[in-house]
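Figure caption, in words: inputs first, then the predicted bound structure.
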Amino acid sequence: MRKKLIAANWKMYKTPDQARDFFRDFLPLVKGHDRDEIVVCPTYLCLDDAVAAAKGSNVAIGAQNLHWEKEGAFTGEVNAAMLLAVGVTHVIIGHSERRQYFGETDDTVNLKLKSALEAGLIPIVCVGEVLEEREASLTDDVLRRQCLRAFHKVSAKKAVRLVIAYEPVWAIGTGKTATPQMAVDAHAIIRGEASECFGQEFADKLRILYGGSVKPENAHTLMSEEEIDGALVGGASLDPKSFAAIVKY
Ligand code: 13P
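Bound structure (1,3-dihydroxyacetonephosphate present):
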């Protein structure tokens, strides 16, 4: 049995004050909840406050991105060591918004994944097809390519804490959710690729989250699928009550 992981991706929302308010209201709602792992990923600016607020609780803190270099002249960037230094344990890599708007490629995803694993962070690598690719029956090819290239020269031993998030781009922030069957089919492709790259035993343990318009109303149905190992939640994670309802599906 894989323990499910429910992660909040706050994207570019919330100031440090708002982040503190969130944790004040959210933590009591999920106190003692240990059926699932809970992770909240705020902006860089709120990480410090989030780590302080969640200290000693059942909630871990993740970042939404990182740079792969150890240090250097990379204006505006933050690396794995800096994230670890403020108490971050998880990091989202290759979110479709970063691929779409910030030039993230399969190759930078690979570099970021290697750097996160090397540093001991738990990477949540996002993959997923755009609408045109789904309509052209290219979903399988896209997912295989994204996984294969993300995993390039990564060993099963190093990747042991890897988490994947399947986020069909057409379902993000649109209110359109993939049907449980669509998600299950996509997860099976991803698991198959992980098995090719890292072996069956690794693939059996790999957690694959679903993301894309997860809400309190659909969380239970999605999370009831054995193949879906958790959720990566955008909009509905900004409100403490709504995110707690998803955690408790
Ligand atoms: P929404 O839950 O707002 O659709 O966003 C999903 C997502 O992109 C999480 O990373």
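The radius of gyration is 17 Å.
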